[in-house]
Amino acid sequence: MRRNGYLKSFILSFFFALFIIFGISGMSQDVKAALNGQIDDGITDWSANTSRSTVGQKKIGNGLSLGYTFGLANDSNGNVTKGDDNTVTTQSKIFDSSANNVSYSKMNIFLNNNGTYIGSVFQSGTTNNTDPSKVSLSSADFGIVFSKTDKGSNGINAEDYSILMNLTNKEYYTGTDANDNQVSKIMGNYSKTDSYGTHKFIVELLLRVSPGNTAFVQRELFVKNVSTSPQSFGVFFGEDTKLGKFDTVRVKDLGNKHGIYIEDGAYKLMVSNNVPDGFSKYTGQDYTNGYMNWLGKFSDKTIEGTGDEVKSNSYGTSLSSGKDSAYTLVWPYVTDLKVGDTAHFGSGMGVTESPYSVPTPRKSYTNETSNDGKNRVGDKLKFDLKLGNYGYSSKWNFSSVKDKIPDGLQIDPNSIKKIDQNGTTTSIDSSAYDASTRTLNAPINLVLSDGQSADITFEATINSNADGSKITNTGDFIGTDPNTDGGVIKTYSASVDIPVEGNPYKDSFTQEIKNSKDSDWGTTAKGANGDTVDFKNTYTVLPNSSDSFLGRKASFRTELPDGLTAKGDATFTFSDGSASYTSSVNGGTIILYDLKPGSSVTVTYSATITGNAGSTSYNDATLSGGQTSSGTSLGTLTTNQTEVNIENLVGFTSIPTKIDFGTVHMAGTEKTLSNISTEGQLAVNNSSGNPYDVTVSYDNNDASTQLKDPVTGTVLNPSADTGLLFLKQRKSSATDSGTWQSVDATGTKIRSDSFTGNQDLTNYIGVGDWQLKLSPTTNPGGYSGKITWNISDSI
Q1: Portion of the chain with pLDDT greater than 90, in percent
Q2: Correct CATH for 507-638 of 2.60.40.740, 3.40.50.300, 3.30.9.10, 2.60.40.1180
Q3: pLDDT, tens only, 300-348
Q4: How many CA atoms lie within 13 A of 479 on its CB side?
Q5: CB neighbours (10 Å) of residue 436?
Q6: What is the CATH number of domain 650-793?
Q7: InterPro entries from the entry (predicted)?
Q8: Which residue, 155, 130, 153, 151, is CA-closest to 140?
């Protein structure tokens, strides 16, 4: 009996112990699920990796990659590993009793040079360190302060202010982005009580490749408030850098308030705010032992102080003495983050080798109508698409920008401009925008050296399609690296989100057009001089609108552009059949009647084409002075734009004005020069429907076209009998690699396959598409000459 009783007791104890084990396992899984689902970071395929890290890599070219991970990424021989650091979720601590040294879970971005680890952060003096606790040991990484005036008892040091020092229950995850690059994150619970209160957050530290697919890694911080009250705080990032073998190099400014870089003769590290929620202030500084004050170089040694950005330095300005390189980044102070809300902070980091370019795109906008930080239907926005080259002893042939304008935005094609690397602004012909596909193809055709950038800007108006939504506008930046990619065309992207306030009053305002000979309405029409085009504008109060439209003070207006002449009056017809009347096309017309939800007014009118063949006319219509039945003013509403292509011409509507080959030092040797810019566009109007060829010719024996020095009269001589001027001829597309063909007096096709219809051919003759082959006996001077363009039917 005793034995049975003992056995029974043992069995109960066994099952009780087993229940406890299961209970712990279940609790652990619940915590992970809760943390991983708490913050929306845009990644949907997270996988928990509880014990060991993995390395992500973004290929640059020729065996060079940008690596990124948390923790250790090299072996004792200085080779890149797959990661496999089993300490990434270990509780961070102070190492060797130094307030500067924080161990574990540190961000590590490096260069993989054909398997060799090229570090960017200090690792206890050697890149061959294999102690995980010493990875980026002397860096604070992300830090946080809870008062604008906090200076700390020993400065803002890593021990007291690094987020990692108060982060518990860490969890490590990996996933993939839309370009199939690895994404890594560490999540944990942050808790700290100080003189400013008790602060509890869910924190996410994240590493991912820039969505634009350039060789930049975004270091991100998400902070979700799970305290019992709103939280105010400031975020900084402090890093002790070591580029390759060198720790004593100067920190320099990227220019335009964009961040910092360091270089050592072979490699370059750059940190940029060209990312979502990027930092606003920064300093380059010398690292100090003891208590490193990461805010020590800011104007008042607090999070509110100003840094090097306030000086508006140019590219290459030194920010430190070069004793021991370090830098600090600071973001705008967060005030009263509500319970349950999340704040986001980002910076971009890249490491490269000479002579690789690092094209870095950026897209932004400013609201030219409203200054309260909110966007509304009818507001005019100005967009800036900027690409900078942050490479090292590099060149980037920036050819063009492509932007598909989303529904909800109406571009003004006459507002498109280019800003070159010298800050000079020039207008781009409105034909760069195709209204039928809502696509902007803007030529750039410039060579960007290190630290240089170029922009495309344009204006667009928010229309009713964007009401109460968030629209995303993405720009593609296209070009080549002539030093490393062998002419391979690459595309990088940048996006910007535009949140638009919702309005319970719902409406739409559209414009359609057609040649009177046609039956289908659209946004484009073709016609010859003397043809008639019909316009139709419709203003609708949508059925789900809360209010009616009061039209007694609302004025409809259309301004016909040059090339179109009004033909008769405009007719106003109301959908409910209540009225119909006519009025002058070009004058402002009062609507007179109100519109209830679900009703509309349609305005139709016609115009005669009187413009020059080969031109394009754009126009839209406006409705101003209207109010809703609840008394809200609607301001000025604008339709989408339509375009009329005036045809019956076979010829060029635009040709380049200048092809620039820059300067060169001959030194008695043959030289081949590539053009560094092409100014202007090459556009053809051909409505015949027949295939045609476009050729370019150059006659070095014609005194009126020869490349010669206008001062001395010296004629430029070719390097050999093969010719002087060469063009990269494509077969069927501007994206083909092409073959170099001599340009002579007989003419050279820009593409071996023929063209049809209207074409913008600028991408066939852009930057890097021309060469001059110079004789070693070429005399110094400034040379200029002329080339001739020709269109002919394809045989």
Answers
A1: 65
A2: 2.60.40.740
A3: 999 999 999 999 999 999 999 988 899 999 999 999 999 999 999 999 9
A4: 35
A5: 10
A6: 2.60.40
A7: Fim_isopep_form_D2_dom
A8: 155
